[in-house]
Amino acid sequence: MEIADALKQLPFCLSKSDLSRWLGPGHTGKVRDSYRLNGKRVMVSTDRISVFDFHVGHVPFKGQVLNQLSEFWFENTRDLVANHLIAVPDPNVTVAKECKTLPVEMVVRGYITGVTTTAMWYQYAAGARIFCGHRLPEGLRKNDRLPEPLITPSTKEARKGVHDKSVSAEELIKDTGLDIELYKRMEAISIALFRRGTEVAARAGYILVDTKYEFGLDEEDKLVLIDEVHTPDSSRYWRAEMYERRMADGQEMDYYDKEHVRLWLSARGLDKFGQEAERSNIPPELFAETGCRFVAIYEAITGRRFEYATGDATQRIERSVQKYLAGMAVNEAVTAP
Fold first, then answer.
1. Backbone angles phi, psi at 133, to 5 degrees
2. Which residues, other chains included, contact 247 with Cβ-Cβ below 8 Å and sequence gap of 6+?
3. Which of 146, 169, 211, 272 is most buried, by the most CB atoms less than 10 A from its CB?
4. How many Å separate Cα 238 from the centre of its chain?
């Protein structure tokens, strides 16, 4: 995608959805709007971008990239763990199983990096050598590869404005009351998912730096992967061919994820509480460039051309959902006793 196309789409970015006419009241998250549907969830991925836990604007085609890239990863990790995906009736819409979300984000880190106060590099540079229960070796530089991928879980805070907290596995189990054996399964699956993601990204010419996974329990209390997988909104990606050169020159990495926006804000001191970031005049070119990078990751990882249409996607999404609901009604009528 050319940056000119992304700039043209900026006035039409999907900021919200309203499917209440067909699905009842919805819930608005940082990026997704979700609606309940007979034991299912209908989730609309918008173009909203949130950094430092605050909404700062919109990225062209971000929602479509997140939705379709997650679909790719859900389909290509079913051999590792079951997931909540049922259908993708629209480029921005996923229908998923209704699950009980477990109160933890399984963060997996392959490199030491980050600019926020909760980042591994930020704390390491400040002198800390224990991070989420892991002892880190001396002499690490920013963006160095870790000896092995580390799981640094984070609690999921439901209250608005309250940041998630990175903790050790022991602290997390104590704080949440999560079953130890269940947590160990989540750890093993998370490492397997990260290794799969690392391999696929490497073949595409990228480094999967770190990511997060979310899990839930379905109606049979079966552990399932939920939310999103290996998207540039929940993961960091670097261009592999640039890594060694930039490390040798002491330069920042070439990011293909929302760190591209985060670094811009951080460089201007707008990373503390987010309010300044929300009010800041972020140049439209930054959002457009970020959209292009999201699309580049999608095409490299999936090997597919990103098919998109400029303009307002609202009516298309509504038609897609109505068609899906009509199909459900037909199927239910056919299978009724």
1. 85, -5
2. 141, 143, 144
3. 211
4. 15
Structure tokens at 60: 């062209």
Which ranges in 212-313 belong to alpha helices (H)?
240-249, 259-267, 275-279, 284-302
Counted domains in the chain: 1
**What are the structure tokens assigned to 302, written together?**
């999936």
pLDDT band at 161 (very low <50, low <70, confident <90, very high): very low
Q: Is 103 exposed, middle or buried (0-12, 13-18, 19+ CB in 10 A)?
A: middle
Asked if residue 229 lies in contact with residue 74, where contact means CB atoms within 8 angstroms, the answer is: yes
**CA pair distance 246, 307, nearest whole angstrom:** 32
Residue 221: left if φ>0, alpha if ψ -120 to 50, beta else—which one? left
**pLDDT of 280-289, one tens digit each?**
678 999 999 9
Tell how many helices (H) and how many strands (E) occur in the chain: 11, 16
Structural domain containing residue 70:
3-335
C-alpha 255/C-alpha 152 separation (Å) is 21
User: How high does pLDDT run on average in the chain?
Assistant: 92
Q: Which amino acid is at 280?
A: S
Between CA 286 and CA 5 the distance in angstroms is: 13
Tell me the longest C-alpha to C-alpha distance in the chain.
70
Q: Which residues pair with 142 in a beta bridge?
A: none
Angle among Cα 321, 325, 328 to the nearest 5 degrees reads 140
Q: How far is CA 50 from CA 20, 30, 161, 231, in A?
A: 24, 6, 12, 14
Residue 269 bridge partners (DSSP)? none
C-alpha pair distances (Å), 157 with each of 103, 161, 162, 176: 8, 9, 6, 11
Which domain CATH number covers 273? Answer: 3.30.470.20
Give the separation between CA 182 and CA 137, rounded to whole angstroms: 29
Contact present, 47 and 54 (Cβ < 8 Å): no
Distance (Å, rounded) from C-alpha 224 to C-alpha 159?
24
More confident residue, 22 or 52: 22
